[in-house]
Amino acid sequence: MRLIYYSATTLNQELAQVFFRKGRALDQLGNAIEACQCYNESLQHNPKMYDAELCILSHQVLSDPENAKMRIDQLKPKLHGKRKAVLQNIEARLIGYTKQHENDALELLSRVDCQYRDRQWFAVRIQLLENLYNKHQVAGRTIIANNFLKDVLNAKKEFGEKYGADTLIEQDFLPDS
């Protein structure tokens, strides 16, 4: 009987991984709705599939920020290492995009360990810096705007050198799993 239970557990973990990978593939193709369905299916098979949870959160930041904030707070004590860094990237997006507190979001990003600064980290940082540049440009604060423009250009240069890409695409904002 114990062998059957073990096999069912193993099967659920493998199914969770299959649905997660399918979701990642769909996300890479730009099909966010079906991707999130796969991530949810993955979580049904393994509720501790935190990579799937992080991918869902990445989408929820813009579509359902209240629930995203609540889930971020629940996950903070559970995640470590790379997953914690991904959660910080997602939280920075939430703070910067939905609350318009770009400086606070950049502060949070600066606390991500250098070894975990991936495509998503750069994408979020670049977009936050661009938002600050635009805010100051519109407000007529040219000197401050130009300082942010320098930061944007430096961040884009570093992103290009590291990833060989000149521009950001939507998939750059996905967790790097």
Label this structure with key terms:
elongated
Describe this structure in words.
With 177 residues, the protein is an all-alpha fold. It has helices at 2-28, 32-45, 50-63, 65-75, 81-98, 102-110, 119-138, 142-163. The protein has one domain (49-173).
Protein topology:
Elements lengths: L1 H27 L3 H14 L4 H14 L1 H11 L5 H18 L3 H9 L8 H20 L3 H22 L14
H/E order of the elements?
Answer: HHHHHHHH
- Major sheet: none
Q: How many strand elements?
A: 0
Structural class: mainly alpha
- Uncertain segments are none
Task: Give the termini separation.
Answer: 35 Å
Question: Could you give a short description of this structure?
Answer:
The protein is mostly helical. The chain has eight helices and no strands.
